């Protein structure tokens, strides 16, 4: 399970002790600001603040790089497409294999806007994930009247994802020790066997878990979804912070 746990939640950072409902509402408010912002300065500011908070919680740069690799790649692709295939004001030209590629100034600005929104939004989600456990996040979603069935399925899926991961490691190690990944064809065959074994294990586990829970009188109610009262200091701090960011969004 340690492969999937967060790297910063165990630290004594003040943000990890905040009520998850307050953090979720604040993140949603900032996310709306980032998406609706008409300039790229505010999303970059949000990305910088969230990145700094992640580093202050002890998150390693390597972990942040892995977390941001895919969205930054998408942002770079969008930026390149907007630069060369959108806009009307020529900025520069390149000759590649006999083709003339013209970069446009307005396309560059539009691409930077989209890329900054992606960076700001992903930074908010990453900060929320590093500072909030999955169960606390599900508790906040339950408070926001997210359907109970979704919460229940998500919690069970999160719990038994680690069980399947451990089973996959055992099967993979056994296959590797028996030279199951020597050669392209043998590797594909081993991967197919591994996937089939995991599907069968997941089905068997689901039946076993359902029977065990019914026998123990499970009625769908979970104690962890019961909510505690809000703390005035946390709410006040969050309101002030979101208000300050809102003023900067307007400017």
Explain how this protein is built.
The chain is mainly alpha-helical and 251 residues long. The protein folds into two domains: 14-132 and 231-250, no CATH class; 148-220. 70% of the residues lie in helices and 5% in strands. The protein contains eight helices and two strands, in the order H-H-H-E-E-H-H-H-H-H. It has helices at 20-36, 41-56, 61-85, 105-131, 134-143, 148-177, 184-215, 232-250; strands at 90-96, 99-104. The chain has a two-stranded antiparallel ribbon with strand order 1-2. The model is unreliable at 1-9 (pLDDT under 50).
N- and C-termini, Cα separation = 45 Å
What portion of residues is helical? over 70%
* Approximate strand percentage: 5-15%
Care to count the β-strands?
2
Poorly predicted parts: 1-9
Radius of gyration: 24 Å
What is the count of helical runs? 8
The spatial strand order of the largest sheet comes to 1-2
What's the helix-strand series? Answer: HHHEEHHHHH
Q: How does the major sheet shape up?
A: 2 strands, antiparallel
Our count of domains comes out at 2
Question: Which secondary-structure class do the elements indicate?
Answer: mainly alpha
What is the average per-residue confidence, as pLDDT, rounded to a whole number? Answer: 86
Give the overall form. Answer: flat
């Amino acid at each position: 399970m340690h492969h999937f746990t967060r790297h910063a939640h165990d630290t004594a950072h003040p943000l990890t002790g905040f009520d998850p409902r307050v953090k979720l509402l604040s993140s949603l408010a900032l996310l709306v600001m980032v998406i609706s912002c008409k300039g790229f300065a505010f999303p970059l500011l949000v990305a910088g603040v969230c990145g700094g908070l992640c580093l202050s919680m002890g998150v390693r740069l390597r972990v942040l790089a892995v977390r941001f690799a895919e969205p930054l790649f998408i942002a770079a692709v969008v930026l390149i497409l907007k630069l060369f295939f959108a806009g009307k004001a020529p900025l520069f030209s390149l000759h590649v294999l006999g083709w003339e590629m013209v970069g446009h100034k307005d396309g560059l600005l539009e691409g930077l806007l989209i890329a900054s929104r992606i960076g700001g939004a992903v930074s908010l989600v990453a900060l929320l994930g590093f500072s909030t456990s999955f169960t606390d996040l599900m508790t906040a979603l339950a408070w926001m009247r997210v359907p109970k069935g979704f919460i229940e399925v998500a919690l069970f899926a999160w719990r038994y994802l680690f069980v399947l991961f451990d089973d996959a490691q055992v099967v993979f190690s056994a296959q590797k020790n028996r030279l199951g990944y020597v050669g392209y064809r043998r590797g594909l065959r081993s991967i197919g066997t591994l996937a089939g074994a995991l599907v069968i294990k997941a089905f068997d586990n689901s039946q076993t878990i359902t029977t065990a829970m019914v026998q123990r009188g499970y009625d769908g109610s979970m104690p962890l979804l019961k909510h505690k009262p809000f703390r005035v200091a946390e709410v006040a701090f969050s309101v002030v912070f979101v208000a300050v960011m809102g003023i900067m969004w307007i400017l």
